[in-house]
Specification:
The complex is a heterodimer of chains A (275) and B (170). Chain A has 275 residues and is of the alpha+beta class. Chain A is built from 4 helices and 12 strands, in the order ααββββββββββββαα. The chains are: A alpha+beta (275), B mainly alpha (170).
């Protein structure tokens, strides 16, 4: 009797294991780009969002006093800066009119709280508390005050997942702010990325700021991606090996902004109209 | 009732993993809290139950990842199965024995994940040393701290006879 029971449990054990492994493999090999599993992923995000949101609310509440003090100080400093920038803006407007430049349209953004993150080696995403109910769609860029954060990859009615700049699959057209030289920024899977496609004769210095170009119509132009950390000009081939450290402190990121009208910013009005 | 308690523990672990793991992260190295919770449940659960729970917890974790649905589900279901199997092989009287068993489980879990995520990557081995192994060590350290403060009765296991299969659970 005991032996029968033991064998029954053994059969159950190995059946569940085989089933789990097969299902995982099916998901891994067939499902990652299909709509059906996207639904499964969305269901998981909704469940996690429900649990994660109150936890993040509590954490925010704990930090709010210190944050208020810091923001009050920042506000005072920004007020002083603002008066200076207003003067500069008016001067800029006058000069634009003089040289015939049109007015640049502003970005329309949706503020979002970071309520969760996936921090596995190489895979870096965050869970945001805004979704399709807030007009969020896949491929929209996500930014913060420090610079480019990433792009939206999955959306549910109330939540969305953003792939971070530090994810190993992240790529973006980039430009050196100082000399306007362009290249492709991609993460290496480690703590830094590489700016490729910059020729040897171009002088790149450690400390140079790398920004988005806006050319690929995915990310708005002018957002900081990172800072040049090391330049290896001696490697063979046509291009330099430029190491770039991302600017945004992703572990401290609590709020971000999803950019809604990015296509218009880049002058691609046909895509904007389709949307 | 026992199963519901186990499910709640794992859901809390997954929620903790995605919400406050950044507090525990050191230089981008983060521990696998779900694996620790899975092993905690494995000390008192059945093998088929832990395999299924590992799969579901992994699937939940995968749902906030970009395009590798199934990676954590596979690693955690195997880890769950292995955990109950290894915890049942012999009696565990000391924390170092528990730690030894957990190290094997954590190694298997980490290598499966690393292989799935980085297979074909040019820095496969470098990333194993710079990312996966530090994360593994960190998880083992946290596991030790967690169980160090738990009452011994919560993890001590007696096994009467020899053999491999889990008589303890049936």
């Amino acid at each position: 009797m005991h032996s029968y029971k033991k064998h029954k449990f053994l059969l159950l054990d190995y059946s569940v294991l085989t089933g789990s492994i097969l299902l995982s493999l099916v998901l891994l090999f067939t499902a990652n780009h299909s709509e059906k599993t996207s639904g499964l992923q969305k269901a998981g995000m909704e469940v996690l969002g429900l649990v994660a949101s109150p936890v993040q609310d509590f954490r925010s509440l704990v930090r709010v006093r210190a944050k208020n003090r810091r923001l009050a100080k920042e506000n005072a400093e920004l007020q002083l800066d603002l008066s200076r920038y207003k003067e500069a803006f008016r001067e800029n407007e006058r000069l634009r009119k003089l040289v015939g430049f049109g007015e640049r349209r502003g970005l329309s953004v949706v503020p979002a709280r970071v309520i969760g993150r996936n921090n596995m080696a190489g895979v870096k995403t965050i869970l945001l508390d805004v979704g399709s109910d807030n007009k969020i769609e896949p491929e929209l860029p996500v930014v913060s005050g420090e610079g480019l954060v990433g792009k939206i990859i999955h959306v549910t009615p109330n939540y969305s997942t953003a792939q971070l700049v530090i994810d190993r699959n992240f790529r973006a057209a980039a430009r050196i702010q100082r000399n306007r030289e362009t290249g492709i920024f991609e993460m290496t899977g480690k703590d830094f990325g590489i700016l490729s496609g910059v020729r040897h004769r171009v002088q790149i210095l450690p400390g140079d700021i790398v920004i988005t170009t806006g050319m690929e119509s995915l990310y708005p132009a002018g957002f900081v991606i990172g800072i040049v950390d090391q330049v290896n000009d001696s490697q063979p081939g046509l291009f330099q090996n430029i190491r770039v450290v991302p600017r945004v402190h992703f572990t401290r990121l609590e709020e971000a902004f999803v950019v809604l009208n990015n296509y218009r910013m880049n002058g691609d009005d046909t895509r904007a109209e389709k949307r | 009732m026992k199963q519901i308690f186990h499910i709640v523990i794992l859901i809390v672990a997954v929620a903790t993993q995605i919400t406050i793991v950044d507090v525990l992260s050191v230089k981008d190295i983060s521990p696998d809290l779900v694996l620790i919770a899975l092993c905690f449940v494995a000390l008192r659960g059945d093998r088929y139950e832990l395999t299924a729970l590992g799969f579901l917890a992994g699937l939940l974790l995968d749902s906030v990842g970009p395009g590798i649905l199934g990676a954590n589900a596979l690693a955690k279901s195997i880890a769950g199965f292995l955990a109950v199997t290894l915890f049942s092989v012999k009696s565990i009287h000391h924390l170092y024995e528990l730690l030894g068993v957990f190290t094997i489980i954590a190694l298997v879990n980490s290598f499966i994940l690393h292989f799935i995520i980085f297979v074909g990557h040019q820095s496969f081995w470098a990333l194993l040393i710079s990312k996966t192994l530090p994360s593994l060590v960190y998880t083992i350290v946290l596991f030790f701290i967690f169980f160090f403060f738990l009452p011994v009765s919560s993890w001590k296991r007696y096994r009467a006879g020899g053999g491999f299969d889990s008589d303890l659970n049936y």
